[in-house]
């Protein structure tokens, strides 16, 4: 027997109220970006919801961390470049661009990402000088017609006056490093990941760039942090391009499991670091329906190249407890510990004995897969992009199309090069003495993605129910 209309109206009203609340929760937790074949994109979320997921920006606000470099002067493009805008969603991204690009002849394009000072002009010059030097030296892997682009991820506060009313700018401190959404223009939903996707799409245009073969994303320091994370979520590149992602001297990485290579309690402890596994450092609060293992399986198949200065050991950069748990105070040790970690996860046959940290292969989950990443260690280089990328080894990281031609750089006495087997291998390995002692549990990360997926499932169920009740009335 059909219920009275008034009863059904009350039920429907209650249901729709619940549905609205759940929709708000889902919108606050879900930020679609990344591979379009895996994650449906939407611009329905407000930017204030998008910026809430990064543990570093939250900690900076809580601790009152000094905001850093500030510049409100008119931007000046370096010689050989011009400052232009590229469309990203409904807004635009400022970028320093080769002034007179050889679009029809270029075989390579380099997207050079600045560090925490947001000095894209200086990084454009660094990449230009390294390219010019390589071409002058007759280095055949370097394309004399290569195009260089250095995006500018402005701070809305610290660079006020430098960006236009339509150009994207981010929250502090440097939320763009974690792939967060811009806070300017008001209501913007475009993330720094979206900006890089837009650049990839731009250079995939075979009519405009008929001979382009290689698209190279390069980041150093803060840009290296962005690159570490973008490589995980980037759209699947155009089939006509060989795309590589280069992360130089990043302060941290995003761990796929709850394991960490630092267990020296005088350095940092998980108990005293509540955000230790929150996004940008782990997958908690990372808003995507994919699991950490699915992200791992995706990224290990990509050409990702890590490069670190052997003397990048100063206690500078990110010194929050979340980063300290990844290998101590030195960027070098954190990066070497990361290399050990991902090789163990993928079960490669790389020689990683002597790496910082005492994570063991047996203690980590078995996520066997073919790792296409490389690690290059530059002897004598500090936290300096010119020293790292301008070295002979850094040159191979930038320009060589095949990962097998990338130099490994420094290696300790007794290091053994991996021999390919019928099982999994990695492109190269590195070992180092010293660094923080470590170990970790083998439990995998409790990802925010799981709760988000549950929210979406419940939402779909309620939508179906609401439709049925409406039809019944």
UniProtKB/TrEMBL annotation:
Q: Which SUPFAM superfamilies match?
A: alpha/beta-Hydrolases (SSF53474)
Question: Which InterPro entries does the annotation name?
Answer: AB_hydrolase_fold
- Sorted alphabetically, which Gene3D superfamilies does this protein's record hold? alpha/beta hydrolase
Which first-to-last residue range defines the signal peptide? 1-28
Please give the superkingdom of this protein's source.
Eukaryota
Stretch list, region Disordered: 429-448
Q: Which UniProt keywords apply?
A: Signal
| Classification via PANTHER family | BLL0132 PROTEIN, PEPTIDASE S9 PROLYL OLIGOPEPTIDASE CATALYTIC DOMAIN-CONTAINING PROTEIN
Name the UniProt record assigns to this protein: Transmembrane protein
Q: Which organism is it from?
A: Kalmanozyma brasiliensis (strain GHG001)
């Amino acid at each position: 027997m059909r219920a009275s209309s008034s009863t059904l109206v009350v039920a429907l009203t209650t249901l729709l109220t619940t549905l609205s609340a759940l929709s708000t929760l889902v919108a606050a937790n879900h930020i679609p970006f990344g591979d379009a074949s895996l994650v449906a994109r939407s611009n329905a979320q407000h930017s204030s919801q998008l910026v809430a997921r990064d543990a570093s920006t939250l900690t900076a606000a809580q601790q009152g961390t000094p905001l850093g470099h500030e510049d409100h002067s008119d931007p000046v493009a370096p010689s050989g470049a011009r400052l232009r805008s590229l469309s990203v969603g409904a807004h635009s991204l400022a970028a320093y661009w080769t002034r007179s690009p050889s679009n029809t002849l270029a075989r390579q394009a380099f997207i050079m990402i600045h560090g925490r000072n947001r000095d894209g002009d200086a990084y454009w010059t660094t990449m230009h000088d390294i390219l010019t030097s390589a071409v002058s030296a007759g280095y055949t892997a370097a394309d004399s017609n290569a195009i260089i682009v250095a995006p500018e991820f402005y701070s809305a506060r610290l660079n006020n006056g430098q960006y236009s009313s339509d150009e994207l700018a981010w929250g502090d401190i440097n939320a763009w490093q974690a792939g967060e959404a811009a806070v300017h223009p008001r209501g913007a939903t475009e993330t720094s990941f979206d900006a890089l996707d837009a650049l990839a799409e731009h250079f995939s245009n075979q009519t405009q760039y008929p001979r382009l073969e290689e698209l190279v994303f390069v980041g150093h320091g803060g840009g290296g942090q962005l690159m570490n994370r973008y490589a995980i979520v980037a759209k699947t590149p155009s089939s006509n391009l060989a795309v590589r992602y280069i992360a130089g001297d990043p302060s941290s990485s995003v761990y796929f499991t709850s394991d960490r290579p630092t267990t020296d309690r005088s350095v940092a402890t998980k108990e005293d670091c509540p955000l230790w596994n929150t996004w940008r450092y782990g997958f908690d609060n990372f808003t995507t329906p994919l699991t950490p293992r699915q992200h791992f399986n995706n990224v290990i198949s990509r050409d990702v190249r890590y490069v670190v200065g052997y003397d990048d050991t100063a206690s500078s950069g990110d010194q929050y407890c979340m980063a300290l748990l990844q290998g101590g105070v030195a960027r070098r040790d954190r990066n070497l510990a990361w290399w050990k970690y991902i090789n163990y996860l993928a079960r490669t046959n790389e020689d990683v004995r002597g790496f910082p940290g005492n994570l063991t292969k047996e203690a980590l989950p078995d996520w066997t897969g073919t790792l296409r990443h490389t690690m290059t260690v530059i002897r004598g280089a500090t936290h300096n992009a010119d020293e790292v990328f301008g070295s002979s080894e850094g040159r191979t990281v930038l320009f060589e199309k095949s990962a097998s031609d990338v130099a490994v750089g420094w290696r300790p006495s007794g290091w053994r090069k991996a021999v390919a087997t019928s099982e999994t291998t990695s492109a190269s390995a590195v070992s180092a003495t010293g660094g923080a002692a470590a170990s970790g549990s083998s439990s995998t990360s409790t990802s925010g993605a799981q709760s988000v997926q549950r929210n979406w499932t419940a939402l779909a169920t309620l939508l179906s129910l609401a439709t049925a009740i409406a039809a019944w009335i």
